[in-house]
Amino acid sequence: MRGPNDHRRVQMERMQNKSNLQVTFSKRRDGVFEKATELSTLCGADVFVVDFSPRNKQYSFRNPSVESIMNRFLEINPPTNTDVANPVIIAHQNANIDEINVNLNRLEISLEKGKNMDKHFTHQGKNLQLKLVPLTLKNCARSWKLQMKKFKEY
Length: 154
What we know:
Blueprint: H1 18-43, E1 47-52, E2 58-63, H2 66-76, H3 87-124, H4 137-153
Helix pairs in contact: 3-4
Coiled coil: 90-117
Subcellular location: Nucleus
Protein name: MADS-box domain-containing protein
């Protein structure tokens, strides 16, 4: 007989229902990341967790940074066979690529908005003497790099 606070035990076998599988994955992933945050906060541990959903989406948690944790890991566990790709390194590279792609997409959206605003002001205000800094992908990337540098220094 179970008490009011007892939990039902879940059989440890792969779920067949894809909807339940995704919901369970999301909840348990959040729980794992919560525990990783607690471990990092309470114990001062450097934590890096990567998981892939049933739909092959990548999720990661890291504290303080992927680079510092990977550098420590590789110092302690140097690759034994350099011809074979290390899955940890590949996951690290993919995480960085995904992050860079998200930022690039944001920059491209900002660039497009800026171009649209520039067109609007050019057509609407021929008599206005506005000095606009040309909004190019290069300027956006420069701004993004400065922000990332400030963020890393923080």
